[in-house]
Amino acid sequence: MPGFSDTPTRHAQHGRYPEAASVEDFQRNLAAVQARIAAACHRVGRAPQTVRLLPVSKTKPEASLRLAHAAGCRMLGENKAQEAHGKWQAMEDLTDLQWSVIGHLQTNKAKLVARFAAEFQALDSLRVAEALERRLQAEGRSLDVFVQVNTSGEVSKYGLPPGDVPAFLQALPAFTALRVRGLMTLALFSSEAERVRQCFVRLRTLRDRLRQSAPAGMALDELSMGMSGDFEIAIEEGATVVRVGQAIFGARPLPDSHYWPGEADAGEAS
Hints:
This protein has 270 residues and is an alpha/beta fold. It has a single domain, classed as Alanine racemase (TIM Barrel). It contains ten helices and eight strands. It has a six-stranded parallel β-sheet with strand order 2-3-4-5-6-7. Strands 1-8 form a two-stranded parallel sheet. Strand 6, helix 7 (193-210) and strand 7 (222-224) form a beta-alpha-beta unit. Helix 3 (81-90) runs parallel beside helix 4 and helix 4 (110-116) packs across helix 5. The longest helix has 21 residues, at 23-43. The two termini are 23 Å apart. Residues 259-268 have low confidence and may be disordered.
């Protein structure tokens, strides 16, 4: 995928998106994001249909999520398992709404994710895989998962070092309730677009290499990368899923360090 070095990040808009307060607001924001997706796809000769938009609703109240659903959102991304589980319980009347858990998971919260989530995007340890497998088997469910990779090298970020991913993938077929769809990463939170782009290049390059040695039946088709401030760059480098929160829902009231415990400057996760 060719690089487009003149594509900037939009991290300067971080925290400035107006709150979506009506179905019409959500429809307008979704259309604007889809237009940005289409433009990025056009630059590299991709069809917009090859990119899935995952609206990220973390920290937003139930009323806001219901407006997003009314505007057409059928899957929402949540960072914390407990918050997501509570929202799922409160909104079980919306039978066509699915949930993607995109944040780091502690093993003691695996039972919550196994109960309701359709997707988990932050798998980065065998302990979590084992906990999810046990709970999913008990629930009679299966779960789409993405393996999280630390492409920025920041110690504050979760995810496997790229060198550990091949052996990790080889171990995953033992967990039959987990369906590995691809890889996920969080890029640097930086206004330097080329440094951000390199995180996405690393994930794509790793995925392309892993396809040669991945266990049978593991296609690794998906690359989840890119957020409100940088998803155009991610699409140029091959993203198939972009996780977008603030550009759809509006700014969050507190800095992202509040939502990512232990990460002083982890950056925007959506």
